[in-house]
Amino acid sequence: MSEPVISANNLSLTFETNDGPVHALKDVNLDVHKGDFVSFIGPSGCGKTTFLRVMADLEQQTAGTITVNGVTPEEARRQRAYGYVFQAAGLYPWRTIGGNIRLPLEIMGYSRAEQEQRTADVLDLVELAGFEKKYPWQLSGGMQQRASIARALAFDADILLMDEPFGALDEIVRDHLNEQLLQLWDRTGKTICFVTHSIPEAVYLSTRIVVMSPRPGRIADIIESPLPRHRPLDIRDSPEFIEISHRVRDGLRAGHGDD
User: Fold this and answer.
1) What is residue 64's predicted lDDT score, i.e. its pLDDT?
2) Which domain does 259 fall in, by range?
């Protein structure tokens, strides 16, 4: 197997607070390989978002090591190795959708012509072609989140880090965006790390599901999905899907039991 894209070894993170230390992550070991779609699921406060933020150099571990593309997260950030999609779309209301997507490209110094081409390409990729001149408030929540994904894809990083991007959306919109995200992953071959609270979402999207225990966040189980790469929504009614869901649920229960 090829070298992992992301590799964590005995990774721990402790926050120092006025009330004493908070152990957010403890002895986390995980390899993520190129083209993987890895979901992180666990109860609130289990460290799954913190782990994503360590990958992105938004937080620094206090013990252990982590590499992204073979270098430190700080170096990977400087090399623009990843795009990051937050829980909220985080679009600037005074900029058009096109303007929001162009922002990282402007900061990175791309030429105007390349900015325009990349913006058009990613809008097409997330099925928002024709909405470039609209403002965020003119789009639905689901469309805003697709624009946020387009912005993260604009500079064509190989890794996409996604922190509960669909958590605030209703179930119908969420199902549709899950389908679109799988299609986008299939077309682009990106490596995706995805945080979620939803068992069906984790099982539907992932090649691997990382089940995390309550604080201090540890990996309770890693489940390799046997589901085919192409997954219609009705695969959620299949025995295989239900069996994986039960294993995720059992892992979450077992993690609570260890606390």
Assistant:
1) 96
2) 1-81+159-259
Distances (CA, A) of 152 to 90, 124, 128, 158: 11, 14, 14, 11
The model scores a pTM over 0.85: yes
Judgement on whether residues 188 and 259 belong to the same structural domain of the protein: yes
Q: How far apart are CA 134 and CA 130, in angstroms?
A: 9
Q: Mark whether 118 and 174 lie in a shared domain.
A: no
Residues 166 and 75 in one domain: yes
**pLDDT, tens digit, for every residue of 249-258?**
998 887 665 4
